[in-house]
């Protein structure tokens, strides 16, 4: 039996959705997408649930899209002999975006407790949560901004503001949790050993408020972002992500990955910047 990507727990009106493939750094797969979509729909429909808490097991919250199946899909499409179809790409990856944004459009407050790496597609997922808290050793970032990707979530802009979003998306630089909290990408960073307790306590505190009050407060806050063009930004971001994977530089990146392996190609991409797997924070984690 194939191991599930998500474990579900409920306590005191808080529904916890726990990413549970720590050995794979909780990377995004079609199976995770489907399990998460179903779990969020079930939590939305359950009247005994007031708050949804997303967290993860292991050393990483989510290290992005799984390298194996995404590259294999790219190569299979290339081998078919057909030109890249932007509409097919948008429809396929749009399914992932539609799942992630359930955290935003669900009528119930959604919280995320981030440990370790939350990078690439992991930010596409988590930035849709209403509130994000992280352990102090956690890191955020979108390294595919350097080649082979565009974030499908416009929440970088809504959370950081235009200029700071440009600062981190122009470079793909790693953003440590403490700095992410200071800049407003997340709510706060807390000691690693207190993360689960702190996030659960906040979720339980929110769950004491009547469901209709929470619904109105969330809709009031979200509508401001919607009025600023959130939906159209999301659409163009998803389209551009497909384009970025099919530029000459993107295709060259895949060719290099064929020769040296995808992980080594990623290391070569990040080495000049000295962060993520090539940076001091990664070496410190490895030493533990």
Task: Walk me through the structure.
The model has no long low-confidence stretch (mean pLDDT 95). The chain has one domain: 2-enoyl-CoA Hydratase, Chain A, domain 1. The chain contains 14 helices and ten strands. The protein has a six-stranded mixed sheet with strand order 1-2-3-5-7-10, sandwiched between helices. Strands 4-6-8-9 form a four-stranded mixed sheet. It starts with 5 loop residues before the first strand and ends with a helix. Helix 1 (30-45) crosses helix 3 (86-100), helix 3 packs across helix 11 (230-244) and helix 12 (248-260) packs across helix 13 (262-270). It has 288 residues and is α/β, with parallel strands linked by helices. Helix content is 52%, strand content 15%.
Strand line-up in the sheet with most strands: 1-2-3-5-7-10
CATH topology: the name is 2-enoyl-CoA Hydratase, Chain A, domain 1
Number of strands: 10
| SSE series | EEHEEHHHEEHEEHHEHEHHHHHH
* CATH architecture tag: Alpha-Beta Complex
For the record, the count of structural domains works out to 1
Tell me the number of helical segments per DSSP (H or I, 4 or more residues long): 14
**Unreliable segments of 5+ consecutive residues:** none
**CATH level-4 homologous superfamily:** 2-enoyl-CoA Hydratase, Chain A, domain 1
Report the average pLDDT across residues: 95
CATH class: Alpha Beta
Given the C-alpha coordinates, what overall shape results?
globular
Helix content: 40-55%
What is the beta-strand fraction? 5-15%
Structural class determined from secondary elements: alpha/beta
Biggest beta-sheet profile: 6 strands, mixed
């Amino acid at each position: 039996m194939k191991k599930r990507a998500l474990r579900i727990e409920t306590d005191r009106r808080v529904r916890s959705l726990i990413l549970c493939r720590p050995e794979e750094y909780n990377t995004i797969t079609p199976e995770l997408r489907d399990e998460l979509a179903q779990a969020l729909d079930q939590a939305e429909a359950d009247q005994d649930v007031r708050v949804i808490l997303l967290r993860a097991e292991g050393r990483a919250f989510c290290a992005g899209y799984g390298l194996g199946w995404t590259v294999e899909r790219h190569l299979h499409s290339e081998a078919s002999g057909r030109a890249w179809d932007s509409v097919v790409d948008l429809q396929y990856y749009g399914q992932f975006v539609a799942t992630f944004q359930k955290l935003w459009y669900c009528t119930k407050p959604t919280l995320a407790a981030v440990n370790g790496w939350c990078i690439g597609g992991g930010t596409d997922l988590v930035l849709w949560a209403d509130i994000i808290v992280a352990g102090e050793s956690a890191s955020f970032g979108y390294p595919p901004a350097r080649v082979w990707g565009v974030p499908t979530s416009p929440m970088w802009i809504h959370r950081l503001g235009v200029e700071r979003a440009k600062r981190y998306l122009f470079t793909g630089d790693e953003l440590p949790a403490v700095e992410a909290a200071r800049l407003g990408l997340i709510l706060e960073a807390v000691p690693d050993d207190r993360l689960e307790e702190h996030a659960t306590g906040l979720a339980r505190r929110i769950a004491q408020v009547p469901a209709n009050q929470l619904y109105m407060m969330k809709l009031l806050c979200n509508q401001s972002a919607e009025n600023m063009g959130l939906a159209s930004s999301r659409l163009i971001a998803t389209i551009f992500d497909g384009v970025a994977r099919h530029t000459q530089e993107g295709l060259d990146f895949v060719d290099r990955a064929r020769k040296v392996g995808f992980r080594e190609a990623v290391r070569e991409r990040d080495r000049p910047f000295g962060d993520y797997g090539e940076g001091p924070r990664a070496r410190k984690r490895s030493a533990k």
